[in-house]
Amino acid sequence: MTLRDLSADASLCSLNTATVREQWDLRQMVDGCVRHGIGGISPWRDKVQAAGVDEAARMIADTDLAVTGLCRGGMFPAADAAGRAAALDDNRRAVDEAVAIGAQCLVLVVGGIPEGTRDLVGARAQVEDGIGALLEYSRPAGMPLAIEPLHPMYAADRACVNTMAQANDICDRLGDDGLGIALDVYHVWWDPDLPAEIARAGRKRILAFHVCDWLVPTTDLLLDRGMPGDGVIDIPAIREQVEAVGYAGHCEVEILSTRWWHEDPDDVLATVVERHKTVV
Amino acid sequence: MTLRDLSADASLCSLNTATVREQWDLRQMVDGCVRHGIGGISPWRDKVQAAGVDEAARMIADTDLAVTGLCRGGMFPAADAAGRAAALDDNRRAVDEAVAIGAQCLVLVVGGIPEGTRDLVGARAQVEDGIGALLEYSRPAGMPLAIEPLHPMYAADRACVNTMAQANDICDRLGDDGLGIALDVYHVWWDPDLPAEIARAGRKRILAFHVCDWLVPTTDLLLDRGMPGDGVIDIPAIREQVEAVGYAGHCEVEILSTRWWHEDPDDVLATVVERHKTVV
């Protein structure tokens, strides 16, 4: 198995806008990607909405940037029917926005346990129901949904889909048409079943590949993710697994980090490019 | 399935000494358990060593306290052979200490990735080799080893055994004689395979049952565990699963928490007892 050679340029690198979300607006992010030779972008909805969806679509279309995803839909579980309906409405709007900006997929952070409950099993059922309902809207719209398994430390408050196996199971049950998985190494690197579940997912299901790193020590559950190369994740080993099943897309760099949010964003992007060429 | 009724007293409660480790020495912990009617204790090695192993054994033997475990052996992986040999030596001493204080098992926090490496697969192999080597010492000594799967957020630096499935796999391969699992709800509550893996483990393998709670938000990866009832873990549901396979031992309360370490330890124990009666 030969890994794709990423050392020449950053054309297969994509910038998830969370990486510089505290420094830049979408205009600056798009310009930054172009300036640094980064081939793709994956915006969060807040940045798209701040720019205006139509204007966001135009500014990206004016470039050669691939739109490797829109982050994020999901957050399906709610304590009551009204909450679930509101979540579904918002997810439909997210599909519309993803279509408008030409995103390759809408990334789903599926949500945790409804507030005031301890019902993890019920939350997981609500997630599957919610994705099923959203597919009725996203399939005709031609927008693939990418379930992102989140690290088990987010099971309570962000996503109760915590392994590739769970995501694969949902795809099995709801059908592969317009449904797949966003694999972020940060969330799944620890999983002893990862190689088997990547093989099970196959090319058809792996819609996005996100990279950052696990720092030792990690000082915050959410905002202390590492620049690739600064932590303990064997990123090339995981990339080799996804490429072995045929993944041919970008490597999307998504780093939620107060440390990197304090840096000059052009320095951040230069570092992203350098690490993409050398350690991803 | 009927859960055991814990509401009458705290005879089936065990105090893991980490819960009041900043306030008390072992003498005070033993006296505290007796004063609060707590039926068991599970000391960490630092407290046993500070008291002196023989004196620790005597002070516990003078009570009716069950010793539900000694915390902890493990930390097997090392960057070189000398490090692995030192770890094994220390683990043999831990077995001796566990025997001396009459512990029901030696809890193993197996260790993470060797410093300076990204070799998670190799670390897991080292862990299994280390447990295999330790069994040659612990089996003749009659001291059961209890593998504690730790939450995946500790995979890098504390324990690369992160699911019940992994622990069961190790038991399958190394044999059940003198080997089993310490199940802490904090580490495994998120796992969709938990019910199946508890059933797979069965009574013979579940050597200890630890409880605390997952707080939302959790502000620290290590020291922000919750008092049972203060978080989102459905503890009785998990207890029902372990009792369904025949677990008849104590519920050991282990709370690493800077918040509770700032409380009066008698108030902490009173709270432990009240929660044990009502929400465990």
Descriptive account of the structure:
- By secondary structure, chain A is α/β, with parallel strands linked by helices.
- Chain A has a single domain, classed as Alpha-Beta Barrel (TIM Barrel).
- Chain A contains 11 helices and 9 strands.
- In chain A, helix 6 (164-174) packs parallel to helix 8.
- The model of chain A has no long low-confidence stretch (mean pLDDT 98).
- The A-B interface holds A 113, 117-120, 124, 151-153, 155-157, 160, 162-163, 165-166, 189-192, 214, 216-219, 221, 231-234 and B 113, 117-120, 124, 151-153, 155-157, 160, 162-163, 165-166, 189-192, 214, 216-219, 221, 231-234.
In short:
Two copies of one chain form a homodimer. Chain A has 280 residues and is an alpha/beta fold.
Number of domains of chain A: 1
Secondary-structure element order of chain A, N to C: EHEHHEEHEHEHEHHEHEHH
Helix content of chain A: 40-55%
Q: Give start-end ranges of low-pLDDT stretches of chain A.
A: none
Give a count of the beta strands of chain A, DSSP E runs of length 2 or more.
9
Main sheet: strand order of chain A: 3-2-1-9-8-7-6-5-4
Mean pLDDT of chain A: 98
Chain-wise SSE layout:
The structure is a homodimer of 280-residue chains.
Chain A: E1 13-16, H1 26-36, E2 40-42, H2 45-51, H3 53-61, E3 66-67, E4 70-74, H4 81-100, E5 106-109, H5 120-141, E6 145-147, H6 164-174, E7 179-184, H7 185-188, H8 194-205, E8 206-211, H9 235-244, E9 251-253, H10 258-261, H11 265-278
Parallel strand pairs in A: 1-2, 1-9, 2-3, 4-5, 5-6, 6-7, 7-8, 8-9
Helix pairs in contact in A: 2-3, 4-5, 6-8, 8-9
